[in-house]
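Can you give me the bound-state structure? Components:
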Amino acid sequence: MPGGNKIAKDGVSFNGRRPVTTQERLIRFEQQISPHLRSAYNLARWLTGSHEDAEDVVQEAFLRAFSAFDNLRNDDGKAWLLAIVRNTSLTLIRRNRTAPTIVGQEQHVEDPSEPSPNPEEMLLISRHREDVRRALEQLPAEFREAIVLRELEGLAYKEIAATAGVPVGTVMSRLSRGREWLRRILSNPREGVQQKRSSAG
Amino acid sequence: MNCEDLRMYLSAYLDDELDVAESLRLEKHLTECSGCRELEAAQLDLRSVLRDPDLRFQPSADFANRVASAVRQQAKQEARKESIGFDWFRGLALFGPSWRWVPAAAVLVVLIAAGTFLILHNTRSSHEQLVASAVLTGHIRSLQAGHLVDVPSSDRHTVKPWFQGKLDFAPPVPDLSELGWHLIGGRLDYLDGRPVAAVVYQRRMHDINVFMWPHTGVTDGNIQAEEAQGYRILHWNGADMTYWVVSDLNRDELMQFARALRGR
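Here's the bound-state model for the whole set.
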């Protein structure tokens, strides 16, 4: 494909050649990866549920990403970085099973596998930011992750698939179910709050 | 398509991720089924709630610096291990136990390397490089200043005539909405020493600036791509117009966009 060759020749992107020195790699890394720090933090924060954990995860992910930077073969540095952030988050969560927003709460929410198309209920959802935040936190991690990547980070399905390491079809179904689930929680947000209180006390 | 299928596909449809055939079938079902229209309204409502930018967590102000210095620290250690060409790094350490020199040296190395890299890079086509960075600056400025468009309209018949009398050429403003590229409007900008047309398209939350101005040199339809500061910049020379496309959209999609635009 002639267009493709042109890109490889002219792009700041790699020509399939390895960067020669660490310094050169650092410059490219700072151009291509560092701009995604906010996205990395946001994802880590939603996955771990804590500011401190998110900062630890992102810092570790950046160091891992820098070491593995030569392995990045395409231009999609964002999805690549977010995949590392995701895996680092999951490692931390597994190590530290106390993170309350990941485990423990999701059992309280019922999967709305059976549709209840009651239009009145459907149109009344809470618009309070704190309710929305709490509702998202209650979702199981894989749904929350898909929604955060899509709605908050604006990723395409293909990019979400690359980040989460799943097929595009899975992304589609997680988003579909996740949103339906979220809408259910938001149409009755106080219930979620009460559950949180009772499980805390 | 029945209601059950619609429940499965609605989300992807609203995300612009469904193929044309399925989208048409879904739209047909929507016109026929009021229950599913309610479902669509509810999903749109949810989307508007999720669009709140404050839902996105922000890192603390100095976090970027902390991470950058951790990465540089690691780069420094790796550079020290790479004996080739950077032995003087070790030599510097011999100046004494004063490790304060090391960060300074690392910064120096980075600056020299950056300078060399940029100089080497720029010899390729310094003029194009200059235009590319002006294009990128123009894009970022248009987003920051909240001045994306002078004529906000999704109708090409509004946007195209607007440029008349403001420019000495008529920029092409194709309607690409069927392909999922939504026209947002147009704006005057100043690039490469002349007033140019900026036409803005959008996909999802990604704004795409298309800068155009007349061009008299060789026609070269090949799309050149580069990346800087997390943005992608595409460039080609059409028959009588030069094109610069810039966005933070992923490369594959932006290439699709450029091909759609070029194809007209």
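A couple of observations. Residues 1-19, 99-109, 192-201 of chain A have pLDDT under 50 and may be disordered. The CA atoms of residues 33 and 77 of chain A lie 6 Å apart.
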